[in-house]
Structure formats: C-alpha cells, structure tokens
Design goal:
The complex is a heterotrimer of chains A (about 130), B (about 375) and C (about 240). Chain B has about 375 residues and is mainly α. Chain B has 14 helices and no strands. The longest helix of chain B is centred in the middle third of the chain and has 32 residues, at about 230-260. The mean pLDDT of chain C is about 90. Chain C has two domains: about 1-30; about 30-245, Alpha-Beta Plaits (2-Layer Sandwich). Chain C has a four-stranded mixed β-sheet with strand order 8-1-10-9. Chain C has a two-stranded antiparallel sheet with strand order 2-3. In chain C, about 30% of the residues lie in helices and about 15% in strands.
Chain lengths: ~130, ~375, ~240
C-alpha cells in the first residue's frame, strides 16, 4: 500500500470539515422540531382558485411567471380559466384579493423553506390583506 | 503547475496577504452597496456612469494591448519577446478579469446578470462585449497555460495553439473596438459620437498596455532579478512612443474637427472638457493634466538622455499610464454626460465607498497577476 | 453561356432584386395604432406654476419624491424652453420665451435609441408605439440612460419606497437597482382611459390619441397648428409634440 503523506492531518481535517458541513442536519435532528410542517390557512372566500389545488401547490410560480410575461410583455390582461370564466391576471389584484391572508398563506411556507420570493419588493399587498 | 504559483519567500506571502486585505476591504463596501444600492456612489441621474465604467474601459484597453507583443513574436518571429510573451498574456488575463469585475459592480441588479445570456439581444453592444471579453479571457488563459507548460517540459507548444494565436490577434482588436462601439453608437452623447473613437481607443490602449508591461518588467527586475533583456525593453519603449504619438495625433484630429466646424452640440462637450462650462472647470484641470503629461512623456521617451536613465523612464511611464487612465476613463465618461440634456453641469465626485470598491477590485486584479507571474517566473527560473 | 451574357443577366437580376426589395419596403403596412401626445406650450405658459399633471401621474404610478436632486425619479417634469430646446431656438426667441415652462416626459420615439442598446430586452417598443419597461428583467446597467437623448429615464439608486407619500396599492413600486420611466399609462389605455396627465390637466393643454387616426384630437391639432419636437435632427421621431 502506498503511504499517504501527512495522512493523519488530512484525515482529521476531512472529518472536521464533514462535521462542520453537516452540522445543521445534526442540530435539527437533536434540537429541531423535525416533524413540523407549516399549516396553511387557505381562505378561499367562496371562489374557486385559478387552477386545481394540487397544481397550484407545486406550480404556482409557473403560473405567476406566465401571467407576468403575458401582462408586461404581451399586454394581455385577461386569463381564461378552465371552466371558461375570465379573470384579470394580477398578483395584487386577483390572487391577493382571494387569499387575503398573505402572512399565513404565502409567507408561512416560504419562510419555512427559506425561499423568499422577490415579488414583494415591488408588488403591493392590498390593505385588506395586511394584518 | 499551480503549486508553482504558491512557492515564494516571506515577502511574497506578505505581499499576497496585503492584496487579500485590500480586496476584503473593498468587498466590505461592495456588500454595503449591495444592501443600500448604487446610491452610495457619486453617480446620479445625469452622470449615470462613473469610476467603475471608466476603469472598465481602461482595462479592456490594457488587455487588448497584449497583441502588441503577440504580433511581433508570432508573426514576425521577434525572438527576444519569447521571454516576456507569457507575461503579456497573463497581464491580459488579469486585465480582462478587472474589466468584467468593474462592469459587474456597476450593475444595479447583479443577481440578474445571466439575463444577458437568457435573453440575448444581438442589437446591444453590451451583449457583444460580454461575448468578446469572455472569449478573450479564455483564449489568453489557454495560450498562456500551454505556452508555460511547454516551457516547463522544454518542448514546443502543441500545434493547435497556433490556430488560437491567429484567432487571438483580431480578437484582441475586437474587444477594444466593441468597447468603443458601446460609446460611439450613441448619438445622444455627441462627445462619444465619433467614428474615430475606436481607433483612438486602440492607440491609447497600445500606449498604456505596453507601458504597464514595461513598468512590471522593471519591478520584476528589481524584486525578482528577472531580466527580460535590454532589447525587449528598448522595443517596448519604441512601441509605447509610436502608439503615444498616434494617440496624441488622433486627439488633435478630434479637436480640429470639433473646434473648426463649431458644431454646437459637439462643441459644448469639448469646450467643457478643455475650458469648462458655465464656471465648472474642475474637469478642465484634469484634462490639461492628462494632455500635458502625455505630451511630456512623449518628449521624454524620444529624448535619449531621459530614455536611457532607468529611474527617469520609470517615472515617465507611471505618469503616462496615469494620463491615459484619466483620458480614457474619467474624462471620457464625464465629458460625455456633461453638459447634461438640459444644458447644466452636474459635478461628479466619486465617494469614499466607490473608491474603496475600486481599490478592492484593483488589488484583486493585482492578486491574480501576482499569482500568475510568480508561477510563470518559477517555471522559467527552474535550474 | 458567354461571360458577357452571364454578367448581363446577373446585373439585371441584381437591379430587379434591389427594386423589388425597395418596393416591398415602401408597401410595409402602416401600424393601426400610434399613440401620441400634444402639449400646448401656450397653456402651460399661462399657468406657469401648475403642477397638476405631474402630481397626478406621480401619485398613481408610485413615483417617489426623492429629495436628493441627483437621485430624482421623474416620469414627467418641467424644464424651460431654452434648456429643453437648446439648439432648436434662435437667440432672440430665447430672450422672449426662453424661460417659458415646458412639460417633459418620455417621447415614446418611433426610433427609440434606448431600446436598441438594452442587453436583455427589458425595454422594447410595443406595436402601438409605447416604449415599455419590464422591471423584472432590467439588470440596471443604465446603458439606456446613456442612450436616451432626452433624460427621460431614471434609475433607482436606492430603495425609494420611503419617498412615496401616498402608496397607490393598485400599481407596483420599483425595486432598487432598476431603471424606470413613463409608460404612457399603458395600464389605463388598456382600460380605455386617457393617460393620467392628459386627464388631470385642468386647462386641456394636453391631448392624447392615435396619430394614425385622422379624426383623433392630436392629429387634428397637428394639422391645424405649428408644432415642434425635441431634437428632431437625431431622427428619433418623438411622439410627443409641442404646439407653439
């Protein structure tokens, strides 16, 4: 077998690095509330969402991006839902008019995942949606 | 080969440490800029580009000027340049890096930089500049690396590098031409709206680039005992003086066209540059400093007495580089934006933070240059 | 075939190709809609201190009122005749009318230099002539500000939300690091409303309409009265006209 130069130093270094690198996981298993899943308050206000809930759960950003490009770049403002009804494509004007509880709806999940969306640096949260 | 970049004495490590320190110092202020916005700089709605873009323009020029050694060495087989051709190529690498870094810190939304690639706009010169600059960076890295490796193994460089060398020559011209096109395509800024801008850029680049290389050679001679050979230094000096004469000539041509024709829109900017406008003559002072330094450098370079005195020529070259940096940096930008569209002068003074970020980027460039040069010289000096 | 014949045929082909291409150019269908604005300079002169249109526009578009003049954000603003038309006016006119107020805004040029230079397509010319901005895409390089000959573009040098006096919840604000400008009330036009500045003017000094429509008020006024545009020699073909 070939000799590894400074083998001890290298191996201790590697172990230390791995320990530091994976520390958040260890921390969470010991102290974290491992099984905590944020509970969303879905206020529907009586209306149907733009698309099925299962689709919106995984793909709301795809729809929002599509809306964004349609309104800004193509100047189209009306979206035809699957059941034929027409709505205005607007984050503040349509989405948040139904989901008035942004903090319990958007922020709770996004905060949990540590994935802050950039929408709100420009788009306003309607007054009634602010708590 | 990388390990060669890291072998050096105590003073070498101290120097690296110093450069790292200044880089971190600059980065602290860049983080502040990221959080607060570009408002921490002295730029504003009228002078919307400043120190960053000035440095960008200058360093694209330094990068392009490697071609002034590549052409004689590879096309005309001037063998003496063999010793420093690698230094020219690595200097180009560091300069392109600096240029890209300066554009990057000038962006208001740096996290969106990939939009340039995601939504390529062929009608924008900035898109083309990104293409040519990254291309040039890669070309010079490959050429420098292959050349050095061949030198280490004492063999000829692989034959395919020949093709890259021939590509790199027009490519070098293109990076500075495209950079000039960024400016001279804008009729909104009569100061830049001149077909002579690209040739002028090239002339001043071929002055400042070889001058910087000469300064570096003199420094390396002092600190490392690296001797590029007296012929090389003499040749480079000639290159600098010829390019400088063309640069001064082009500047005079530009002045003639503007001042003889009396065209009001052009005149407004050029008279602001040289004589001030409505009592604002801070820039005129810088302009005359640059012009006087350039002219005197030219005289010193061709005077035998001065050009043979190593100390005098070192100081001359430093002043010349400073003069060119002023001319194609701040003076170019500020005379372009002032007087504004509403016939006023808005004074631009770079802020402390802006200067700190600039220093940080410079020292990052110097760090890259030091590592690359140390590697090259260690390979060359091996017993 | 002899060489001479070949050259003859090739030449003929070349000339007819040129002819055809020029014909196809001139038959390019004209756009149906070309929005334009006229500004009656005399009305603005009579009501020198009026800022109604500016305030109305800036209020509905959440344009911040930045105190630092260097970092001002403006969609519509005033200047004087001699500054805005520096090279268009003779010296004597400057004496009598040089200090007249002039309303300035994005000219929504037919040939917009800002659009050409944008490296990401964050600004472009719409079919109806509006020069639009996509604030989602702008990287803040400010090339468009250098290219605009009218100073119509403003940059957000910092987070300017704090300078918005009264937030209009129905219109987004702009984040720091992007360029912004007048959008000719694109969001109102789509609802068949007039641009806010035109609507707000208490003196009827502004008109808005389709310049390709013979009947629209701006095209009627432009036929009847003398008008100028800013820096016509640049060939940007502004769609904002000043009635003299």
């Amino acid at each position: 077998m070939k000799r590894v130069y400074d083998g001890k130093k290298i191996i201790t270094g590697l172990v230390l690095f791995l320990a530091a690198f994976t520390s958040p996981f260890w921390y969470n298993t010991v102290f974290g509330t491992f099984d905590y899943v944020p509970e969303l308050k879905v206020e529907k206000n009586g209306k149907e969402c733009v698309k099925r809930t299962s689709y919106m759960k995984t793909n709301h950003m795809v729809l929002l991006r599509f809306w964004r490009d349609e309104v800004v770049r193509s100047g189209k403002r009306i979206y035809k839902k699957e059941d034929g009804t027409e709505i205005e494509m607007s984050l503040s004007g349509t989405c948040l008019k139904c989901h008035k509880n942004k903090e319990e709806f958007c922020d709770r999940c996004h905060g949990y995942l540590g994935k802050a969306p950039r929408c709100w640096s420009c788009h306003n949260v309607p007054r009634e949606a602010k708590k | 080969m990388i390990e060669k970049a890291l072998s050096g004495g105590k003073s070498y490590w101290l120097w690296l440490l110093f450069l790292c320190g200044v880089t971190v110092y600059g980065m602290i202020f860049y983080i502040q800029q990221l959080i607060y916005g570009l408002g921490i700089t002295g730029m504003g709605r009228d002078v919307s580009w400043g120190l960053y873009i000035a440095n960008f323009t200058f360093f694209v020029g330094v990068a392009a000027s490697a071609v002034m050694l590549v052409i004689p060495y590879y096309l005309h087989r001037v063998k003496e340049y063999g010793k420093i051709i690698i230094l020219a190529e690595f200097c180009a690498v560091a300069s392109v890096f600096l240029a890209i870094a300066f554009v990057f810190v000038d962006l208001g939304k740096p996290e969106r930089i990939f939009n340039i690639i995601l939504y390529p706009s062929l009608n924008s010169l900035l898109f083309w500049d990104m293409i040519v600059l990254t291309g040039y960076l890669i070309l010079n890295l490959i050429l420098g690396w292959c050349g050095l490796e061949a030198e280490k193994k004492e063999i000829e460089p692989p034959s395919w590098t020949k093709v890259l060398i021939y590509i790199s020559i027009p490519w070098a011209i293109s990076i500075h031409t495209v950079t000039a096109f960024i400016y001279c395509g804008l009729f909104a800024r009569p100061f830049w709206f001149s077909a002579l801008l690209a040739p002028r850029f090239l002339a001043s680049a071929f002055t400042s680039g070889p001058a910087i290389l000469l300064i570096l050679c003199i420094l390396l001679k002092g600190f490392r005992g690296f001797n590029p050979g007296i012929d090389v230094l003499e040749n480079l000096k000639k290159t600098v003086s010829y390019a400088l004469s063309v640069h001064i000539f082009f500047l005079l041509v530009e002045f003639f066209t503007v001042f003889y024709s009396d065209h009001p829109e052009h005149l407004k900017h050029f008279s602001y540059m040289l004589f001030g406008y409505k009592g604002h003559n801070g820039l005129a002072f810088l302009s005359w400093t640059s012009i006087v330094l350039s002219v005197f450098s030219f005289i010193f370079l061709i005077l035998k007495k001065v050009s043979e005195n190593p100390k005098a020529i070192f100081v001359t070259l430093l002043l010349l580089v400073f003069a060119i940096w002023l001319e194609k940096g701040l003076i170019l930008i500020l005379s372009g934006f002032n007087p504004t569209h509403e016939a006023e002068v808005v004074t631009y003074i770079p802020t402390f933070q802006e200067i700190s970020i600039t220093l940080g980027i410079w020292s990052l460039g110097a760090l890259i240059l030091t590592l690359l040069y140390n590697m090259a010289l260690n390979v060359k000096e091996k017993p | 075939m002899r060489r001479r014949d070949f050259l003859k045929i090739a030449g003929l082909g070349f000339i007819s190709g040129l002819f055809l291409s020029s014909v196809s150019f001139s038959f390019k269908p004209t756009r149906r809609v070309r929005w334009g604005i006229t500004i009656d300079v005399l009305q603005c002169k009579k009501n020198r201190d009026c800022k109604v249109c500016i305030e109305a526009c800036h209020e509905i578009h959440n344009v911040p009122d930045v105190p630092d003049p260097k970092e001002k954000v403006m969609w519509i603003w005033t200047s004087t005749f001699e500054k805005a038309f520096e090279n268009e006016l003779g010296p004597l006119v400057k004496e009598t009318r040089g200090s007249d107020p002039v309303l300035l805004l994005c000219n929504h040029c037919e040939n917009p230099p800002c659009v050409k230079v944008c490296p990401t397509g964050a600004t472009w010319k719409r079919e109806d002539g509006i020069v639009m901005m996509d604030y989602h895409r702008c990287i803040g390089c400010r090339y468009c500000m250098a290219a605009c000959p009218y100073g119509s573009r403003s940059f957000n040098w910092k987070d300017n939300r704090r300078y918005i006096k009264k937030l209009n919840y129905d219109f987004p604000v702009r984040t720091k690091g992007v360029v912004e400008k007048c959008n000719l009330c694109e969001e109102r036009i789509s609802k068949n409303l007039l641009p806010r500045c035109v609507e707000a003017c208490p003196y009827g000094a502004l008109t808005f309409g389709n310049l390709n429509d013979f009947q629209s008020s701006p095209s009627r006024l432009l036929r009847e009265r003398l008008s100028i545009v800013r820096k016509p020699h640049l060939g940007t073909l502004p769609n904002v006209f000043y009635l003299l």
